[in-house]
């Protein structure tokens, strides 16, 4: 029948004409984010991090740079690593979350922030100091322990490291040892530590 297609098209136009708009005027208006939203930042719990670098190895783009040295702060227990560098270049990151999935200790989480525009590419590197000092509001993406608690990073208070993991692991340190200037292995200290065991 002639004109039926035009009539159908006109009906679609009229239906959208009276529908309530779902666009918003950002940044004046904002919509609620889902707690699982993967933002453009990361939440890192240094207290839970062993410096194993699994996150860096699993990153398909080589976006994470980690440098550690033996801290010599825990020799009777076999020692632990102090973390000197933990840089994440979000200028190259595709926010796939594989690094978060790879972390065996629930130390790395996707963040919820997304307003990370910078004027330089170097400004897009999230440094270890920024990770250390950032407010801990992890996304619940790939973290069922946070979902089961009903945690909402945009509304609730910050999540402390003791509550962020899947298990209370007694070997996590309340505070990581501070990076030392002398990164050479002190053979005498190691020997002394071995004798204490
Ligand atoms: S989110 Fe993906 S691309 Fe970004 S640092 Fe993690 S593994 Fe690499
Ligand atoms: S964040 Fe996780 S995977 Fe990465 S170095 Fe720390 S413990 Fe290892």
Describe the structure.
With 197 residues, the chain is of the alpha+beta class. It has a three-stranded antiparallel sheet. It has a two-stranded antiparallel sheet with strand order 1-4. The chain contains seven helices and five strands, in the order αβαββαββαααα. The chain is elongated and about 85 Å long. Helices cover 25% and strands 12% of the residues. The chain has a domain of 135 residues: Alpha-Beta Plaits (2-Layer Sandwich), CATH 3.30.70. The structure holds iron/sulfur cluster (2 copies).
Total helical segments: 7
Query: What oligomerization state is this entry in?
Result: single chain
| Average of per-residue pLDDT values | 86
Level-1 CATH class name of the domain at 30-164: Alpha Beta
- Beta content comes to 5-15%
CATH architecture of the domain at 30-164: 2-Layer Sandwich
How much is the radius of gyration in Å? 24 Å
Each distinct ligand: iron/sulfur cluster
Strand-pairing-aware structural class:
alpha+beta
The third-level CATH topology of the domain at 30-164 is Alpha-Beta Plaits
Following the backbone from N to C, one meets helices and strands in this order, namely: HEHEEHEEHHHH
Q: In terms of per-residue confidence, which ranges show pLDDT below 50 for 5 or more consecutive residues? A: 183-197
Query: Ends: how far apart?
Result: 92 Å
What is the tally of beta strands?
A: 5
